[in-house]
Design a protein that fits this description.
This protein is an alpha/beta fold. The chain contains ten helices and 14 strands. The longest helix has 28 residues. GO terms for molecular function: DNA binding; DNA-binding transcription factor activity.
């Protein structure tokens, strides 16, 4: 039978794709790690890694095992943290995925939560919505603040809408549209725009909005970061569209212009519906949903958050 230790060793190599780095992360000797991986391969009768002098790659069997390993190790961690919670007080670790457009509000929520629950460790990752949904499915994340509501019929996630917020146009103080309070989407036709990469829910909303209006824009720059997009817009290199709260935050001088019709994004709290939440996870979801930083719409997804 495969042990959890073997899965931990395998997972480390699969993530690093490098035996020396994986051994350092595990704090064991590299020859000992290689021996354990060879033992696991003999036990399964499979080759899990393709090795040569320059790189290590997962085989198809290794990729399949990694999916199982991620889920099993995540479940074991959840069991341990659940029992610790029953043993006395709320404690444990929460692997939290965060949409970049929510970082200002989320930082203030985390400050209060960490004061209230000092024994809970937060492991924070800034990711796009596609990455977070994949992380929830694979067991790499416990909770995520998505930039959109999950797809209709998504039964593997529990989710709760945190509200809605308009997306606004940001330009330099002396750039086109700077003197306007609002413009029609159609007026963006032919203009330069900062775009967001594939996987960004806000980027997808912007693309759909422009397509509906039959507007063509030139993708002058691509950025994963709203701060970068805002900086590029502030000096007139290209306009950018982003959540209003991000545009209104402190930073270089800009002009903020409303769009008509007004696109909106829907911040959403999500977790796996197939794994029982730990006391720490339940405490966090309850704390965040009830926090004044977010407008609770009361709209619950396919399965409500406890």
């Amino acid at each position: 039978m495969i042990s959890s230790r073997q899965l931990e060793y395998f997972q480390a190599v699969a993530r690093e794709l490098h035996f020396t780095r994986a051994a350092a992360a595990l704090r064991i000797a590299q020859p000992a790690l290689s021996q354990q991986i060879r033992k696991l391969e003999r036990q399964l009768g499979l080759v899990l890694f393709e090795r040569n002098n320059h790189r290590v790659e997962l085989t198809p069997a290794g990729t399949a095992l990694l999916e199982h390993a991620e889920r099993i190790l995540s479940d074991l961690t959840a069991v341990e943290e659940d029992m610790l919670g029953w043993a006395g007080g709320v404690r444990g670790r929460i692997r939290l995925g965060a949409a970049r457009g929510l970082m200002l509000q989320l930082a203030r929520v985390l400050a209060g939560f960490c004061r209230t629950y000092p024994a809970v460790e937060i492991e924070l990752s800034e990711l796009n919505t596609q990455e977070m949904i994949a992380g929830l499915h694979m067991g790499r994340l416990d909770i995520a603040t998505l930039a959109e509501v999950p797809a209709v019929g998504e039964r593997s996630l529990s989710w709760h809408r945190l509200g809605e917020e308009p997306l606004v146009l940001v330009t330099g103080p002396d750039a086109a549209f700077a003197g306007r309070t609002s413009i029609a989407i159609a007026e963006l036709d032919g203009h330069d725009l900062v775009v967001y990469p594939t996987g960004s829910a806000v980027g997808a909303i912007i693309t759909a909005t422009l397509a509906t209006a039959e507007v063509w824009v030139r993708a002058r720059f691509e950025s994963r970061d709203y701060t970068t997009a805002r900086a590029l817009a502030s000096v007139g290199l290209a306009a950018a569209i982003m959540p209003a709260s991000v545009a209104e935050a402190a930073g270089p001088p800009i002009a903020i212009v409303r769009l008509e019709p007004e696109p909106v994004w829907t911040p959403t709290l999500a977790r796996s519906a197939t794994r029982r939440p730990t006391p720490a996870q339940t405490a966090f979801t309850t704390y965040l949903v009830g926090h004044p930083e977010f407008t609770d719409t009361g709209s619950i997804g396919d399965i409500s958050i406890d």
